[in-house]
Design goal:
Elements lengths: L12 E2 L4 E2 L23 E2 L6 E8 L2 E7 L8 E7 L5 E6 L5 E9 L2 E5 L6 E5 L5 E4 L4 E4 L6 E2 L6 E7 L5 E5 L7 E4 L8 E4 L7 E6 L4 E7 L5 E7 L7 E3 L1 E2 L16 E9 L4 E8 L4 E7 L5 E3 L14 E6 L5 E6 L5 E8 L3 H26 L1
């Protein structure tokens, strides 16, 4: 089996390396009942840039903007691996086999810039200040906005930094003897860190995201050898270590084109300050589907990019980031099996538009009465 590192990839996870086998995966939208209308705008390059907006679609109560950054060299597509609360994404270009090319980017769709991360690194997380973290499965890095890349020295043996919040707290994975637990680092200048251990099974943990309240989410290798979600609050650490709490696996919906598909694994990848989590699950067809998980209610909502398509009988959407405003980000694969990035914004509820329309009508009426009074 060959392994590579392009964020939290697909089934048969090599959790110790923070990576998963990508073989033969692709994507399409899940067969969920979607209330919103679906529409497609003509693909067009953004004027003055090589960034490409592939299309804009509405589905599942979200407006999806699908895009690729400026593609260079052998790149054929891209993966967004995270999004900040200011809406800036971070990710990497991918080749025709959906392997990372080592060219990383940050910014908003149509307006991304290339990051100076050097060869062999993958950018995985970004905060509102524009500071980026990542790794290559052997060394973790921190890239300050406008500064030079530096390797994490704490914890020793840090292999990947997956997330950074607006307080500068960093989470990831490190090697400790024969185990690969997660870690929480208070800041880039900190020497003390908190070890995050698995709820059960071999101690192989990917701490993926930490919100501004100290809630960490990620995934671990269970006794069944598959990935499962966990959460933990770093405020409960008293001796420099914590044990994650297992999150109940989703009861997956029936998906069109995947008859008889059963759950295999799940990964929690990002959490906002309200406790809403973004992630995805894998099923027995080797397809992957996005979800949102509410840590307060324990409820899952399933959501795929509507531009995703089957390739070799497999479909893939990963939701890799979520902001405090509810904007989500991630990537999907098209009918040729090529990955592309997306951001998606929640569509306001009808009551919002009714309220807004009523407010505008009231303003117009009051202005009309004021004009009438002055001219009477």
């Amino acid at each position: 089996m060959s392994y590579h590192f392009v964020k939290r990839k697909f089934g048969d996870c090599n959790l110790a390396a923070g990576s998963c086998d990508r073989r033969c995966a692709s994507t399409r939208t899940a067969g969920i009942a979607l209330a919103s209308a679906l529409f497609l705008l003509t693909a067009a390059a953004v004027p003055g840039r090589a960034d490409t907006i592939l299309n804009t679609l509405m589905s599942g109560g979200y407006t999806f903007t699908n895009f690729d950054p400026t593609l260079t060299g052998v790149a054929a597509g891209s993966n967004v691996n995270g999004i900040s609360n200011t809406g800036n994404t971070v990710g990497t270009q991918t080749d025709a086999n959906n392997m990372g090319t080592g060219s990383n980017f940050a910014g908003k769709p149509g307006s991304t810039t290339t990051l100076n991360t050097g060869a062999g690194q993958t950018a995985l997380g970004i905060n509102s200040a524009g500071n980026v973290v990542g790794g290559n499965g052997a060394t973790a890095f921190y890239l300050p906005n406008g500064g030079a890349l530096q390797n994490l020295t704490a914890p020793p043996g840090a292999t990947n930094a997956f997330g950074i919040n607006d307080n500068g707290n960093i989470v990831g994975q490190y090697t400790s003897g024969a185990t690969t637990p997660g870690f929480y680092l208070p800041g880039i200048t900190s020497t003390n860190f908190v070890t995050i251990n698995a709820p059960s099974g071999p101690d192989s943990v990917n701490a993926q995201s930490v919100n501004n309240n100290g809630l960490v989410v990620g995934f671990y290798q269970g006794t069944d050898g598959q990935a499962h979600g966990f959460d933990v609050n770093v405020g409960n650490a008293t001796t420099g270590s914590l044990t994650g709490t297992a999150i109940a696996d989703p009861v997956i919906p029936a998906v069109a084109g995947e008859p008889g598909a059963t759950f295999v694994f799940s990964q929690l990848l990002s959490v906002n300050d309200s406790g809403l989590v973004a992630g995805y699950y894998g099923d027995s067809t080797t397809s992957q589907h996005g979800f949102l998980y509410n840590t307060k209610t324990g409820l899952y909502t399933f959501l795929d990019d509507p531009a995703a398509a089957f390739f070799n009988g497999v479909e893939v959407t990963q939701i890799t980031g979520i902001t405090n405003s509810g904007e989500i980000a991630g990537f999907y694969s098209d009918a040729n099996g090529i990955d592309h990035s997306f951001v998606a914004s929640p569509v306001p509820e009808p009551s919002y538009w009714i309220l807004m329309t009523s407010g505008l009508a009231l303003i117009a009426f009051l202005k009309y009465r004021s004009v009438r009074a002055r001219t009477a």
